[in-house]
Amino acid sequence: MKTILELITEEMRRGFSEAGYDEKFAVCTLSNRPDLCEYQCNGALTAAKQYHKNPMDIATEVVERISSSNIFSVAEAVRPGFINLKLQGAFLGDFVDAMRRDRERMGYDKVSTPKTIFVDYGGPNVAKPLHVGHLRAAVIGESVKRIIKFAGNEAIGDIHLGDWGTQLGQIICELQDRKPDLPYFDDNFTGEYPEESPFTISELEDIYPCGSKKSKENEDFHKRALEATYQLQNGHRGYTQLFKHIIEVSVTDMRKIYDRLNVHFELWKGEADTQPYIPDMIQDMKDKGLVYESDGALVMDTNEPEDKVEMPPLMILKSDGASNYNTTDLGTLVWRMNDYHADEVYYVVDKRQDLHFLQLFRAAKKAGICAPNVYLEFIGFGTMNGKDGKPFKTRNGGVMRLESLLNDIDNEMYEKIKTNEDIPEEEARDTAHKVCVAAIKYGDLSNQASKDYIFDLDRFTSFEGNTGPYILYTIVRIKSILRKYKEAGNEKSASKVGEPTNDSEKALMLVLSRFSEVMRTAYNEKAPHKICAFVYSVCDAFNHFYHANKILGIDDKNLEAQYISLLEVTERVLLCCIDLLGFEAPERM
Known about the structure:
This protein has helices spanning about 5-20, 45-50, 55-65, 90-100, 135-150, 165-180, 200-215, 220-235, 235-260, 280-285, 325-340, 355-365, 400-415, 425-445, 455-460, 470-485, 505-510, 515-525, 530-550, 555-580, and strands at about 30, 40, 70-80, 80-85, 115-120, 155-160, 290-295, 295-300, 315, 345-350, 375-380, 385, 455. It is α/β, with parallel strands linked by helices. It has four domains: about 5-85, Arginyl tRNA synthetase N-terminal domain (Gyrase A, domain 2); about 115-165 and about 270-385, Rossmann fold; about 165-255, no CATH class; about 400-580, Isoleucyl-tRNA Synthetase, Domain 1, CATH 1.10.730.10. The protein has a four-stranded antiparallel beta sheet with strand order 1-2-4-3. A four-stranded parallel beta sheet has the order 6-5-10-11, sandwiched between helices. It has a three-stranded antiparallel beta sheet with strand order 7-8-9. Helix 5 links the parallel strand 5 (about 115-120) and strand 6.
């Protein structure tokens, strides 16, 4: 289904062509002066330079050619050469009704050539609790993945666990100091290792920082940790089993938190999963003459002729032959290309990692890991700051655990929800959590990903203004009206969305009609904040319509049915959008 802007533009092309001008000038946009018109075309101003004519004359000629159009109720030329456009109500009503009939997609066409697209987001380290610093990657990545999937592609979200490196050696050595009699440390042990982990998640979260601290302060412990890491990476039987316990315990805990956030990964792969691919990858780089030794390390140049500043070489292997982030990230790409034949890969990571990913992408193309037509993009996000403008912390200055943040907001929302005494306890808890997730996610996603933003809990949890709770409250209001309509003995309306009968109804239709354009832009730019802005505009338009019109119980039953049909479209559009943002609406609030 063509977007409404495409239909408008086609009509304007006809007008320019029939007036003797190139169709390329028929570029239309949403009006930046909604008090004057709904859409505008400024092409006459540009065409005037090519045709050496007064832009007002060109605009007037074009308007004459479209004066009988069944799309525009108003088409007028205004100085110095703008063309102001308003849509006919019947045309707009038919367009929105076509959205109503397309129940699943509301007129948004899938991509013509579906692709296999990876979204790499999350990136937590094992053995550590998730904290607020992990929030943005999870929230943005999940939404980007959903947007890609809704466009018709195969979208694969991969958490990319940090599970390979010196921290594993530190954990192993710290555990050995605490429990030296465990069979994992006995090189002569040949039996079956216990299936149950020798530590809980709470113990593991204490072991990790203790081991890290010792490694910094004690040279002997540091050497032991390096040796344990080397042994693990070379298949030490006991350490390998411990590694499996670390992953199992960590992932079990992570899943609980991510599930609460409505964040779901198709793959739970980590750096360790790339190890089988690395030896052949390194050998291939050597065979091609792409790498060389520098101070004992293996490096690759990633400079390009157009670089204004020389780029440092990319370290492929450390001087001791161990892998690093560069190695495992390249190995991950080998795996994604070999096993999944990925067409595109997006990395949702802190924007301060931009140099790493620039070098990574260049190395991947230079080494032939990714074909020239494989698209790689870094979606760098800004910092989540407190009201003081500094990275968000707890009141005592520590980094807040994500679980604690969710619990605090859950409880705050529950207290607000319980003021509605008609909601049973279990439903109140569920509703409170849905509002909590909406508050967090909308508060984050409504900002452009690359920008820092202030995490203002008081504002994000407000039921007024441009917030997640306000969005949900509007949807619940629509649900309530539709429910009451049905309870009054009516089935869901079979009436079509007709010609708008007043300004507020037309304003709501105009906003809804932009759905496909917004989805297309959000997909092309991988920009959830575009959907947030659209959702808020729909809610704002609906609430104006709601306050300006009596919807239920009016004498004109045909008009009532038309209103209900319009609300059905509004509900489906909003539910689709918040699903792409990664949160849900309750039935009541």
